[in-house]
C-alpha cells in the first residue's frame, strides 16, 4: 500500500528486526564534508522541506544520497516524524531520488536505481530511528548502534522487503559516546550517522568492502536535537 505502515510497536515483539503488516569500518561523511565535497552535484527537485512553515520547526535529520563516491543533489532536511525516500511515484510526499539528475551514470547505477521502487520509510520514534523496507529488494544498514562496541568487524544488517529495523538506538548511542574508544575508528567517524544501501551489500561478507563501492546509498545525518 502507498500509505505508511502502522506503528511498529503493534507489529511484532521482536525488539530489533520485524516484518511490516502489509496485505558491514567504512567511510563516513559529515554534513560539512559532504557539502564541501568537489563531487557534489546539484539536483533539480522539489524540496518541500524548505517551505516557510517547515523552516520554523526543528529538523531531526538530513538525508544525503550517494552514487558510489559522488553525492547527488543537496541535503534533504526532515522535519516530520517520518519521511518516505523512494525512486518515483505518481503521488506522494518525501524525498524522490528519481528526480536527481547526474550526467554519465554507469549502467550499474541505472540498474540499481530501478530497484529502489517504493524505497524506505524512515520514522523517528521515542526509542530511536526505524527504517521500513518498502521496496521489492533488500536494503543493507550500518550504524554505530548496530556495531559491536570496540570491535573492528563492520556489522552490516540485511533487511528483506516488508521488514523494519531500528537503525539507531538513542539510549545505546548515549552509552557508546560516553564509553567508546575512538582509537578503534579507521578514518572519519560520525557517531550520529546511519548508512543504508539499496540492493547491494558491503563489508567483510561482500565483494564491496566500502559503502562507497555501492551504486546507490543514503547517509542519514541525525541531529542532536532529539
Radius of gyration: 17 Å
CATH architecture tag of one domain: Sandwich
Instruction: Give the structural class.
Output: alpha+beta
Could you name the CATH topology of one domain? Tumour Suppressor Smad4
- The helix-strand sequence is EHHEEEEEHEEEEEHEE
Which CATH class of one domain is shown? Mainly Beta
Oligomer: single chain
Amount of beta strand: 25-35%
Provide structural commentary.
The chain contains 4 helices and 13 strands. Strands 2, 3, 4, 9, 10, 12 and 13 form a 7-stranded antiparallel beta sheet that branches. A hairpin with a 2-residue loop joins β2 and β3 (about 70). The radius of gyration is 17 Å and the shape is globular. The protein is α+β, with helices and mostly antiparallel strands and about 230 residues long. The protein has a domain at about 60-180 and about 190-220: Tumour Suppressor Smad4 (Sandwich). One of its GO terms (biological process) is BMP signaling pathway. This is SMAD6 protein. GO terms for molecular function: I-SMAD binding; transcription regulator inhibitor activity.
Concise synopsis of the structure shown:
This protein has helices at residues 31-36, 52-55, 107-113, 170-179, and strands at 17-19, 61-67, 70-71, 76-78, 82-86, 95-96, 120-125, 128-133, 139-142, 157-159, 163-169, 193-198, 217-222. It is of the alpha+beta class and 226 residues long. The chain has a domain at 61-181 and 188-222: Tumour Suppressor Smad4, CATH 2.60.200.10.
Amino acid at each position: 500500500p502507498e500509505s505508511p505502515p502502522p506503528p511498529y510497536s503493534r507489529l511484532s515483539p521482536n525488539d530489533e528486526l520485524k516484518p511490516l503488516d502489509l496485505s558491514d569500518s567504512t567511510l563516513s561523511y559529515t554534513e560539512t564534508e559532504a557539502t564541501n565535497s568537489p563531487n557534489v552535484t546539484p539536483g533539480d527537485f522539489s524540496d518541500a522541506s524548505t517551505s516557510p512553515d517547515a523552516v520554523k520547526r526543528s529538523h531531526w535529520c538530513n538525508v544525503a544520497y550517494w552514487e558510489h563516491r559522488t553525492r547527488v543533489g543537496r541535503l534533504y532536511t526532515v522535519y516530520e516524524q517520518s519521511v518516505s525516500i523512494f525512486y518515483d511515484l505518481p503521488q506522494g510526499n518525501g524525498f524522490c531520488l528519481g528526480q536527481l539528475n547526474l550526467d554519465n551514470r554507469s549502467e550499474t547505477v541505472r540498474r540499481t536505481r530501478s530497484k529502489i521502487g517504493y524505497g524506505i520509510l524512515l520514522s523517528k520514534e521515542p526509542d530511536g530511528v526505524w527504517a521500513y523496507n518498502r521496496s521489492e529488494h533488500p536494503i543493507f544498514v550500518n550504524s554505530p548502534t548496530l556495531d559491536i562496541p570496540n570491535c573492528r568487524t563492520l556489522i552490516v544488517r540485511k533487511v528483506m522487503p516488508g521488514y523494519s529495523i531500528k537503525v539507531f538506538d538513542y539510549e545505546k548511542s548515549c552509552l557508546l559516546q560516553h564509553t567508546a574508544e575512538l582509537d578503534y575508528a579507521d578514518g572519519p567517524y560520525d557517531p550520529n550517522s546511519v548508512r543504508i544501501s539499496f540492493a547491494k551489500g558491503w563489508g567483510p561478507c561482500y565483494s564491496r568492502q566500502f559503502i562507497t563501492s555501492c551504486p546507490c546509498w543514503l547517509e542519514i545525518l541525525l541531529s542532536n536535537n532529539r
